[in-house]
Amino acid sequence: MEVKSIVLGVEGMTCNSCVQTIEQHVGRLNGIHNIKVSLEDKNAVIIYDSKLQTPATLQEAIYDMGFDAMLADSNPQPVLLDTIFLTIPTQSSLTSKQICSTLLKNKGVVDVKMSSDQQTAVVTFIPSIANGKQVMQMVPGVDLSISAPEVTPGTCESSSWSQASSLVLRLKVDGMTCHSCTSTIEGKIGKLQGIQRIKVSLDNQEAVVVYQPHLITAEEIKHQIEAAGFTASFKKQPKPLKLSAIDLERLRNTQTKGSETALKETSSMNDTKTIVFRIDGMHCSSCVLNIQSTISALPSVTSIFVSLEKKSAIINYNPNLISIEVLRRAIEAVSPETFKVSLPEEYDSVALYPMLVSTLQSPHPVLKDASQPLTQVVVINIEGMTCNSCVQSIEGVISQKAGVKSIHVSLTNHNGTIEYDPLQTCPEDLRSAIEDMGFDASLPAQPSPEVQLESHRTEPSSQVSPAHLVRQETKTVSKCYVQVTGMTCASCVANIERNLRREDGIHSILVALMAGKAEVRYNPAVIHPSAIAELIRELGFGATVMENCGEGDGILELVVRGMTCASCVHKIESTLMKTNGVLYCSVALATNKAHIKYDPEIIGPRDVIQVVKDLGFTTSLVKKDRSASHLDHKQEIRQWKRSFVVSLVFCIPVMGLMIYMMVMDSQLSDAHEHHNMSSEEMEALHSSMVLEYQLLPGLSVMNFLSFLLCVPVQMFGGWHFYIQAYKAVKHKTANMDVLIVLATTIAFVYSLVVLLVAMAEKAKVNPVTFFDTPPMLFVFISLGRWLEHVAKGKTSEALARLISLQATEATIVTLGPDNVLLSEEQVDVELVQRGDVVKVIPGGKFPVDGRVIEGHSMVDESLITGEAMPVTKKPGNTVIAGSINQNGSLLISATHVGADTTLSQIVKLVEEAQTSKAPIQQFADKLSGYFVPCIVAVSVVTLFAWIIIGFVDFEIVEKYFLGYNKSISAAEVIIRFAFQASITVLCIACPCSLGLATPTAVMVGTGVGAQNGILIKGGEPLEMAHKVKVVVFDKTGTITHGTPEVTQVKFLVEGNQLPHNKMLAIVGTAESNSEHPLGAAITKYCKKELDAETLGTCTDFQVVPGCGISCKVTNIEGLLYRKDKMVEENNIKNVTLVKIEENVEESVQPALIIDAELPATRTSQKYCVLIGNREWMSRNGLVVKNEVDKAMMEHERRGRTAVLAAVDGVLCGLIAIADTVKPEAELAVYTLKSMGLEVVLMTGDNSKTARSIASQVGITKVFAEVLPSHKVAKVKQLQDEGKRVAMVGDGINDSPALAMANVGIAIGTGTDVAIEAADVVLIRDDLMDVVASIDLSRKTVKRIRINFVFALIYNLIGVPIAAGVFLPIGLVLQPWMGSAAMAASSVSVVLSSLLLKMYQKPSPEKLEFRARGQMRHKSPSEISVHIGIDETGTGSPKLSLMDRIINYSRASINSLFSDKRSVNSVVLSEPDKHSLLVGDFGEDDDTAL
Question: Is 143 a catalytic residue?
């Protein structure tokens, strides 16, 4: 049975009648023992049974009565209970059951248990509500008396058999090996009846149990521990005290029964007396020692014994020197002045008899037993308190902290006495908590201050044992992080925080929703991280302990100016290291920088900076780089651009030389064939050519120039390829880089070797070299890479935009008592600490996440939630960093700062999604993975094949080897010919066309896309888009326009009472002062309808967030007069045409009479206007009729917002406002479906609106109320099913999902960040471009595949020819032919890509024509709505075919006979074909616009 006490703040009470009402109403509730409401303190203290009531239900009960109730703290305090034994008379008129039920009906009685013989009742009651005497008189007509159960001397419990409060038992427990053992024992024993608390220590191998001896015995506890598989033994066996009958008789005789004072006195000397006091408020042995040392020092006291368990003091004193009253007051004056001393009633003495004799004989052993307290007391000196309000605020805040049992703050002594549980908190934490409230707090050198007694003698306080102090200091609080999944909103966060704070050993908990992370500070001696995770799991969330998570230390980089030498450095370092909370400090004199690690729980960055400033140095924060430079591709772009330019510069002349040589060679071979030239003539002609002129024997101009041009390209252009190829080979893989390096290096080395050999041989004919290969290869490849990186570089700008949303400065305020503003200062947002109070002015950005503590406002959170409507914020609500405050000034308390804010987490999500997305391995790379080894193998085989063939049959070689010279040996000729063939293979197979296949198509594709308003970032999204199977649409701003518009106005009064124009003018004027989007929509609509730029005057404008507005409107007559004038002029124009002027007068006059006289005599009338929801109207005493309410509900069901307008106390209009669907949305969705794609709608909005929008555009699967992080999870979930996902969105909240999706498509009118995070950006706000982008992707990929065919066909045909397979039929390839084939493949690939320029995007007209008659609105039974990211749909009624047919026909018939929709129609609760044709027109008729 858990009896708890809680303090609720109650606002809205005006007099004592309110107090009585609350006390009577709440007091009647089941499980409420007592309630005390204070009008002055505006609070209610409630004592209740925690099994029947919770703080939330109590809060709700007070809410229901019309008062505001706030939880001062979510931690209810346990209430101490007392127990007495009552003897039931044998001749009782009532049965024991009736007595039980009668007792339980009384306030204050918690539990009644009957003994087996039905003669004794054990009554547990709350001493603060009832006492023993009152309990005895609770059953009228039955004389109950206090009894003591029989005691068998020698049992463990004999010395304390009727003890009212609890006993402490210490057991030695052997066999525990880990924290799991301690949890097992604590869990098992803690559940037993009569066990109030158990703490098992693994280190000391002991268990401390607080139990109620009348409910459970020590033996039973020991037996239960042994049953759990451990060995247990009593550490301190209570010694039974055997008293003789004479002793007991003597003690009983000393009672003066019935006396008013009920003193218990015994004579020990002629002039001394003994008295027993009851003392409430003692918590530990420190209290006992304080009282004993202080009182025993009085000259009139001969001996004193204080018992903590019995809550009593037995004093032997001289009545001639001191009176009982003075003794009582002396005990009350003992520090910490919280003891309540009373003269006990008779029954309490029973428990004291055995103690009396033993104590007076030997007090010391008892004192020893009283040590090892379960609570401790500390006195903290507090400076800066000015009045009782300060005292109350400190007591209020500190009493709510975990582990604090009681607190008493003294304004006169400038100190606070706190009783606390050392396992849950420590003096240092308490001191810092008081300091956090703005007071100066310090711990005294010794635990208790000196006490002033009534006799004005100052006595020194007793010292607490040194062991006790050591234990206090070594107390540690550890921190762990738990990954929490399954949280959907702020109430989940509150639920986890509230429940975990109640657990023993948990010091504090902070949960971050976006990061899905909980930071828990706990006592490792009481609880461990896995148990914390288990507690969270029990609440229904997924939880895992994060092992490698950083400890959450704050890191601070400071610039320190004014340091001159090493001593300055030492001074700063040593001072900071002494500062509590600083973990590490390093100061560099050379760079003037300080690097500091600190614990953000103890100290903040501002405190650290202040410490350095106090030392006389100027210091400032190192400005963090707010850009995402690590995702920038600038370096790579620069590198590839440089590589391309270098290669190009050298490649152009090489290509010129090559073309020239190819032309000349072809002429030579022609001459050889036609003119039958001899070899000698050929040689002579050859060497007479300019480029073939030999500079040195064997070295021609051509080869020399080629060599000079090739070297720089090989060195500088190919540098990067060499590095990458080396890394690839090292990791036993082969990519394009390996093949490029292989071909260029072998070509270069072979050419160089051949040249050197020719020079050594002084050859007449110049050798054929391959110096033209490297430059050409490098040019094509580096161009491809450069273009690729330019596209990739675009993505990183997203993060820079996101980061720029973060406010750069914050206004921190210091609050005095009662939230009085003492000071405010502007600081860098990085310097805001957890717990700071930050002021945010209207129009300002929230710098950090926090909780509102003062003020009311509307906040635009579209940044995070993506929904356009601002959210009302009042004290207790949470706010998000980066969102914009609209109209009221707010004070917020910072809960998440720095990297923990929601905005930072979104930045991190986008960052992770961008960096973790593995680029699809280009098809070329995959291919070259196999291609490279194959070509190398073919090349090697060719080399050896020709060497073997040459040696076997030299004639073949001799016949086909150009420039064969008899002076060269046959072996040399064979080897040279073999090398030539193998290099031709490498050359022709070089994958430069493979390298160009993708980038050129991508370049043309993206270019064509840009011309059509589709920006595609690089080849990856282009390649990926054609594989997409699911298209996910965001709602707001994507499927809909994203701004509210008036869709319907229903006039509720006749036109002759209030003309429609006049009503629009009044309503438009009233809303012109509103900053709310709905107000802006109404004003815009009214201006459009009245065709006016300005409206009337609005005064006394008041806005109630979440309800509506009220104001006074004047000066609308001029507006109406102008409007009527225009009507009149138009009519006259028309009339002059038709020549019937008399009608004009009739048609114009009535309108003028209703609204105004002629301008000269016009007087301005004042109208009282109310615009808002139902609640606002009823608050202002207006009744909303049933039909109006039904019309409102119908609008709300369709996802619209319905607003009522009243003028001068009369309801005159109903305005429906909605975010309208884009006209092309339905066609786009239909076309995507016809392309074989699944279409899903995902939104953060409510399910009603989502369902309505989905039905209008033809989407059947909807995910509503989805958070940004859940959008990511949903996309991931779809990807895990093996589907490729395209996400279409516009808001920042979509950017993580856009980055996570295989293809992110952003609507161009959306936010910059969404545009940057996406892979595809639609410049025009047209959903048909989504269709076009996927279509373009499909066409481009098709083109890339054709390119690959072109690229490979040369290889597939050219490689065998180059290898000499077709040599017998006369087909032979020279190396220059290989190069030509390679160039041709590249050119054909580029030309193929250029054909993409012919692309035309599908026209809406054609698509509409094709879809004619097939598009239709969906009925709700076809739409499945899922809330959050769960898979089970909700709310779509599953109807049988028969039901559908009946409902369908019923609705159709109804719609024919009536313009009101059939209420019973389930299927047609959304518009479908028939209802749109018939029903809607009926409704819109009463618009009269």
Answer: no
